[in-house]
Structures are given as C-alpha cells and as structure tokens.
Amino acid sequence: MFKGVLLGFACYAAYAVSDAFVKSLHGSLPAYEAVFFGAALGLAAIPFIRKQGDRWGEVFVARRPALWWIRAITGAISNLSAVVAFTHLPMAETFALIFLMPIFVTVLSVLFLKEHVGWRRWSAVFAGFIGVLVVLRPGFRHLGLGHFAAIACGMAGAVSVVALRMAGAHEKRISLYGAGVVGPLAAGGVLMLPSFAWPTMQQWWLLAGYGLLAALAGVLLMLATQAAPANRVAPTQYSQMLWAIGFGYWLFGDTLDWPMLIGIAMILGAGLFTLVREDQVSGWWRRMKLV
Fold first, then answer.
1. Are 37 and 250 in contact (CB under 8 A)?
2. Which phi and psi (to 5°) does residue 82 adopt?
3. Which residue has the higher pLDDT, 273 or 147?
4. Read out DSSP for 31-56?
5. Fewer CB within a 10 Å sphere, N or C end of the chain?
6. Domain that residue 99 falls in
7. Which residues make beta-bridge pairs with 184?
8. In Å, what is the CA distance from 35 to each residue of 74, 82, 181, 204, 218?
9. Is the pTM of this model over 0.85?
10. How remote is the C-alpha of 226 from its chain's centroid?
11. pLDDT at position 209, please?
12. Read out DSSP for 190-236?
C-alpha cells in the first residue's frame, strides 16, 4: 500500500510539472494547438496502459459507445479549458477552482444517479462554494476568462466521472484512456486547421514536457492503483497544490493574498472531505480498470 501511495504522489507531481510546462508557454501558442501536441505525445502511454489481449483498435471503440464519446468530449473540454486557465491565472488559483470537481460530482450524482447525500457532504458542498466566493470575490476582483475556464475544467471532469459511474464496470482501460487522448487530439487538430502556427524550438521543448509528463503521470496512476486501494491513492491528487504554490512563486512570480489562501483552503478541505467520505470514489476508479 505504501508503494501505491508514493506512486500516487509521483503521478500528481508529474501532472503538476506538466502543467507548469504548458503555463511556461505564456499563451504564445493557441490553447488548442498546445492541447493537440500534448495529446499526440500522450499516445506514448498507450503501450504501457494496454493489457495483454487488448486490441489496438480498442483505443477508438468501446462496449458502450456513449461512454466513449462522453469521455472524449469532456476530455477535450477539460484539456482546452485547463490550458486557458493556466495561461491566465496563478497555478494555485487554477488548481483550487479545478478541485471543485468532487463537489460537482456530488451535485451531479444527486441529479442524475439519484444518490442519497447526507448533511455532511452537503455541508462540504456549501463550504466549497463559499470558498469559491472567497477566492473570486465577485464585485471586488476582475473575473476573466481564466476563472471560467478553470471552473469549466472541473465541471467537465465531474461529468466524465458521473458518466463512468452510470456505465459501470464494462469498459477496458485502453478504451477509456484512448477516449481521453483522442478527444483532445481531434478537437485540437480541427480547431488549429484554419491558422496553424509551427512551434519554435523552445516551444517544442515546452510542449514535449507538457505531453510526455502527462503520459508518464497516466502510467504512474495505473501502477499506483495496482499497488494500493484506489481510495488511498485518490487523495494524493491534492498534493498538486503544494507544487502549484511553489512553481507559481519561484517560476512565475505568482502572489496570493490572505483571503485567496483562506478560500483555497476551504475548497481543498471541502473537496478532500467529499473525496474521502464518498465510498463510491473507489468504485469509480475500479471502473476505469486502473486496479
């Protein structure tokens, strides 16, 4: 179990460094172009994700096609909005808003899965949204595209989670991972056709770090959930906030005032409580065939 948790921390460290690479582009490439090349490099993980007996064509097909398409579409929205958010916002603020995902999952599960949610989880939902108001302070701070993009990223991730729950344990890992890569690849490719700008050498290095580290993180996540229960690995994702604060301060000159830090703490606490409290989180990870 200890090995799995360590791999979980390594996985989310890789994701955080990947995000730092794409932020280092500073918007010099359109978001959809960064997403396209990042997804193309993300294909490098498929040989490691693929189990013996899986067919390569299963990257593009699923036993339940609706699940594959939802995963592909939400993957495209999530990746595009994440790049936009990291381009426009401090890393810590971006992660705080993306980490609304478990709270969105709770709300969507009540609406679409008719799950019973007790007062403790509703209290966490309420606390999380209060934290958002503290971070955003509408009327006192300028709210821009980055804020809405970060929230859209969290919402898209939540829709993907709920869709996986609705589908049950029917899909292969290679199909689910494939949809999460092919969706952004297709969306980015289509969007960049009218005005493609060939990256410079420096931009290539940053794109390589973005895509390959994300692929490495996907493989590490698989290994982590093979070595430890998924509900032990899942909370390690919140370690990304430490990386975000460090990278933001040392690499990008980000500054966070006290109200924002308090709001971030409220969002993280609410999300982590929801994640740990909800028994079905581990079931969702098993449905992704990562254990």
1. no
2. -65, -45
3. 147
4. HHHHHHHHHHHHGGGHHHHPPTT--G
5. N
6. 2-287
7. none
8. 13, 9, 10, 13, 16
9. yes
10. 20
11. 97
12. HHHSTT--PPPHHHHHHHHHHHHHHHHHHHHHHHHHHHS-HHHHGGG
Beta bridge partners of 138: 141
* The predicted structure's pLDDT at residue 219: 93
Q: Give pLDDT tens digits for 125-161.
A: 889 889 888 888 876 678 899 999 999 999 999 998 8
CA angle at residue 31 from 15 to 24, to 5 degrees?
A: 55
Residue 200: CB partners within 8 Å, gap ≥ 6? none
Share of the chain above pLDDT 90, in %: 47
pLDDT at residue 82 above 70? Answer: yes
Instruction: Give the whole-angstrom CA distance, residue 209 versus residue 47.
Output: 19
Domains of the chain: total = 1
Tokens representing residue 164 in the block: 């996986």
